[in-house]
Specification:
The chain has 439 residues and is of the alpha+beta class. The strands form five sheets. Strands 3-2-1-9-4 form a five-stranded mixed sheet, sandwiched between helices. A four-stranded mixed sheet has the order 5-6-7-8. The longest helix has 60 residues. Helix 1 crosses helix 9 and helix 6 packs across helix 7. It contains ten helices and 15 strands. It is elongated and about 150 Å long.
Length: 439
């Protein structure tokens, strides 16, 4: 039976939706819908400033690119190959919105943006995204799958709204999309996205040396270092559930979950890497001793916190009334959450609010009926008690009257009044004689 909208239920529904301003816009992790047709943004020309930067840095219009993301610094960088084969920074953009904390994505719904090495091919470009323009970064990759990590539709997109993606404003996204488009036109078959928690300098690694994600970040740093040394994207493989970089294993195939075979690298690369690490270790030791470092930013505390947030996301999607912000976890395992409650303003949220409002209205009516019944019973009991009290009083009066009839009381004795003094002269003389000889 459909619920009839009354002023009370309408008020309850509005109250249920009022507090939680989460909205439905943004990169949700279920599906990335399309707008139904390209708005022409996908074919926007390269801005003249970008073309001029390519010319200045000896980059061909269609030469390959690589993207680098730094969460803490809130940056997306586009690097492009120069005529000498090495890459140089072409453009840098502020990330407009990004959810989650530092640290990798673990499971669907944890609102984390990925960290690792990903690949974008032409089929992952979405010119018709309802978030202006978008491309799928390729999560989960072989590393993520080997480590049991889940999730889908993780994007770089426009519209400045995110729940696990890297969201740019529309003009930025138009520019990034155009740069990638031109590289694909120039013959690049895929480009690499390197997603890091922060710039992996000695100072930053020292800051986060006690973080639960530190071992994972050290693995990412190997790829980061190779790019810093060679200024070319590293060859990325996965074995023993970890990244390996620039590995040559002739005749052997690398299994993401299997043992790593013996690999080789050119001597020049090994020497350059060792020299880089020597300088890094000295800088790291110095940074550990320094007291000037900024405090580290919050990071996700592993799969337990990821499950906690994922459950919050599922309840949010169902339209339940939950905390406005997702819960968080401290290093001691304590769960922290806001006290403000609300629900998503979506069809699911409105349906859930209506159902709860109907239940609340039924409960209110039932409570009013129960209160009226209790009042009637109390009034009936009071009337009965008054009737009993009146009857008891009448009975006691009859008993008192009967007792009085059986035992009549004697007449009261009235004492004679003292004789009055004689008036006049004789009275006064009599009084004096009495006073002289006593009474």
């Amino acid at each position: 039976m459909p619920m009839i909208a009354t002023p009370t239920t309408t008020r309850l529904i509005r109250a249920g939706l009022l507090v939680l301003a989460l909205g439905v816009a943004g990169c949700t992790e279920s599906t990335l819908e399309v707008s139904g047709g390209s708005s022409g943004n996908a074919n926007a020309p390269l801005p003249q400033k970008v073309v001029q930067a390519m010319i200045t840095k000896n980059m061909a219009r269609g030469s390959p690119i690589v993207a680098r993301v730094f969460k803490e610094e809130n940056k997306v960088e586009i690097w492009k190959q120069k005529t000498n084969g090495r890459y140089d920074l072409l453009a840098s953009y502020e990330i407009c919105k990004m959810s989650g904390k530092l640290g990798p994505k673990y499971i669907e719904g944890d609102r984390q943006s990925p960290e690792g090495f990903y690949t974008v091919r032409p089929g992952q470009m979405n010119p018709n995204s309802k978030y202006h323009l978008a491309f799928n970064i390729g999560y989960p990759n072989a590393y993520d799958r080997a480590n049991g990590r889940t999730g889908s539709n993780l994007m770089v997109h426009g519209a400045c709204s995110s729940s696990g993606c890297f969201s740019m404003n529309n003009s930025q996204m138009t520019e990034i999309y155009a740069i990638a488009r031109e590289s694909f036109k120039g013959g690049q078959t895929e480009f690499q996205i390197q997603s890091f928690p922060f710039r992996m300098t000695a100072a930053n690694m020292a800051r986060y040396r006690d973080d639960p994600n530190y071992a994972f970040w050290k693995n990412l740093k190997e790829g980061y270092d190779y790019f810093e040394i060679t200024k070319t994207p590293p060859k990325v493989d996965v074995c023993e559930k970890r990244y390996v970089f620039n590995a040559a294993a002739p005749g052997a195939s690398l299994s993401p979950s299997g043992a790593c075979p013996a690999v080789a690298q050119p001597d020049s690369l090994k020497m350059a890497y060792q020299s880089y690490q020597t300088g890094y270790e000295a800088a790291f030791a110095s940074a550990v001793k320094s007291n000037d470092a900024l405090a580290p930013k919050p990071s996700i505390l592993g799969i337990q916190e990821a499950k906690l947030v994922s459950d919050w996301t599922k309840r949010r999607a169902r339209g339940e009334r939950i905390t406005v912000e997702p819960p968080s976890m401290t290093a001691t395992g304590t769960v922290v959450q806001t006290s403000r409650m609300g629900r998503i303003d979506s069809p699911a949220g409105r349906k859930m609010a209506a159902l709860e409002a109907a239940d609340a209205e039924k409960k209110r009516i039932a409570e009013e009926k129960a209160a009226a019944a209790r009042l009637a019973e109390e009034q009936k009991a009071a009337a009965k008690a008054a009737e009993i009290a009146a009857a008891e009083a009448a009975k006691q009066a009859e008993i008192a009257a009967a007792e009085a009839a059986k035992n009549p009381q004697p007449e009261p004795v009235v004492e004679a009044a003292a004789p009055a003094e004689k008036p006049g002269f004789l009275g006064r003389v009599g009084k004096r004689i009495t006073n002289l000889f006593g009474s």
